[in-house]
Amino acid sequence: MANRPILVVAGIGTGAGTGASTARIFSKAGYRVALIARDASSLQTFATSLNESGGDAHAFPISSYTHSSIHDAFTAIKQHWSGANGKAEIRVAVWNTASGVFKPFLSVTEEEIKNSADINIVGAFAFSREVILTFKENGLDAKGKRGTLLFTGATASIRGNVLTSSFAAGKSGLRALSQSLAKEFGKENIHVAHAIIDGIILTGRTKAPRDSDWAENEDVRLNADSIAEAYLYLVNQDRSAWTWELDLRPAHEKW
Ligand SMILES: *[C@@H]1O[C@H](CO)[C@@H](O)[C@H](O)[C@H]1NC(C)=O
């Protein structure tokens, strides 16, 4: 494919969750894939596995989600594909990075809340800034868009709970950012969407279950590949009827 757009995805985790599935599904759909995360060695392993399945993926590890690190990562991404045949434009960006502690309010430390704000909010601002600046340089695609910026949200994006003061504050901030960006940049044909993932995905890092049934019963979990398919659907929406917020949950939810 001569004209292969680039997907940038930040937040790959163990390679079993939403970020990794998004990278795989978009790679199969013909996208070049730029991977951003903090764990350089698992990121490299994952990029290699995408290449081995016929993709064109590259790892851009960063030490932290600061404005300067994220800016440097975007510079490196553009540089990496600058000699590619055909146009290699960043057309899709997914912010899947998250950080949270799940603790009673009085146990949350100052450092933990600062870390939540730094990753869930400040990091997302930095990522969005690079993405918006990049999209502004793109022409319109067949759907009438310059690009699509997606954010992975959670139950905590809209609902606080007994152990989620820090995580919910971060995720609510992220959701508010995504809505503000959707309003500000929709007029420039930049599509911004937020997906509330309301439920559990099985990954190596899955937190303590809300429900004892979750490990055995896949009907009460979300499949990360199915979330990624929903992201591809959002990207393929045209600008006459596009979604700002999607709510994904398993059919057999019990909450
Ligand atoms: C994957 O292949 C592409 C194209 O050949 C290359 O630019 C990239 O560095 C490779 N990535 C890895 C992780 O080997």
TrEMBL record:
Q: State the superkingdom.
A: Eukaryota
What the entry lists under Pfam families is as follows:
adh_short (PF00106)
> Mind telling me which InterPro entries this protein's record contains?
NAD(P)-bd_dom_sf (IPR036291), SDR_fam (IPR002347)
| SUPFAM superfamilies to which the protein is assigned, alphabetical | NAD(P)-binding Rossmann-fold domains (SSF51735)
Matching PANTHER family: OXIDOREDUCTASE, SHORT CHAIN DEHYDROGENASE/REDUCTASE FAMILY (AFU_ORTHOLOGUE AFUA_5G14000), OXIDOREDUCTASE, SHORT CHAIN DEHYDROGENASE_REDUCTASE FAMILY (AFU_ORTHOLOGUE AFUA_5G14000)
Q: What is this protein called in UniProt?
A: NAD-P-binding protein
